[in-house]
Each structure stands twice: as C-alpha cells, then as structure tokens.
Amino acid sequence: MSTIEKDRNILTLINVFAVAPDKQQELVALLIDATQQTMKRLPGFISANIHCSLDGKKAVNYAQWESMADFEAMRKNPEARPHMQAAAALAQFDPILCEVSNALSAE
To answer: Which residue has the higher pLDDT, 67 or 100?
Structure first.
C-alpha cells in the first residue's frame, strides 16, 4: 500500500502517459498487468497506483520503490522490458523521479 510521508527515504516514480482516448483503457490494463505479473515480484517494489484522466487523454502511474538502485534494476530487468516497450507503443510518457517534500491532510 502506498504511504506518502516526508523523510521515509523512498523513491517515487510519477509517470504521466499521453494517450489517445480510444487507447487509454488498453494502456491502463497493460500497466495493471505489468504490475501484477512482474513489478510486484521485483526487489524493492512497494506499490503502484494507476490513474485515468477524465478526458481519456492521460494515464498516470504513481509508483514507489525502496531505492533508486531497485528502480534502476527494474529498468534493466528482461522481464520488465516488454511491458515498458508495449506502453511506449501505446503512449508517450514522461517519468518523473521524486522524493516526498511534504504530506498534508485535512486532519
């Protein structure tokens, strides 16, 4: 489960995909499948949350990894590559690597 906390010392990937509206659900299914079949079995994986824009033109993957090293190992993993290539065939994407600076709530 995702936890958003300052000073937790984890890597956050926010990957924004620009996709044709008629391909959004195909992309989302691919991202969910990639997470269930491959990513969650890799060392350092914490969580992934897939979001769909209401206009159908974007999808967002908010994922957490224990470290940059774990994330880089995933990118080089031969099981992960086909998923990334399939996503690239459906959409353009702009990955952003982050750390939490602050976390606020209504409480």
So the answer is: 67
* Amino acid at the residue 38: T
Contact, 8 vs 100, CB < 8 A? yes
Q: Is residue 1 part of a domain?
A: no
For residue 30, give the CATH number of its domain: 3.30.70.100
End-to-end CA gap in the chain: 20
Is 70 a member of any domain? yes
The per-residue pLDDT for 1 is 75
pTM of the model: 0.90
pLDDT tens-place string over residues 9-44: 899 999 999 999 999 999 999 999 999 999 999 999
| Alpha helices, DSSP H, located in 1-107 | 24-37, 68-76, 81-90
Determine the structural domain holding residue 25 and report its residue range: 11-98
User: For residue 24, how many C-alpha atoms fall within 13 Å in the half-sphere facing its CB?
Assistant: 16
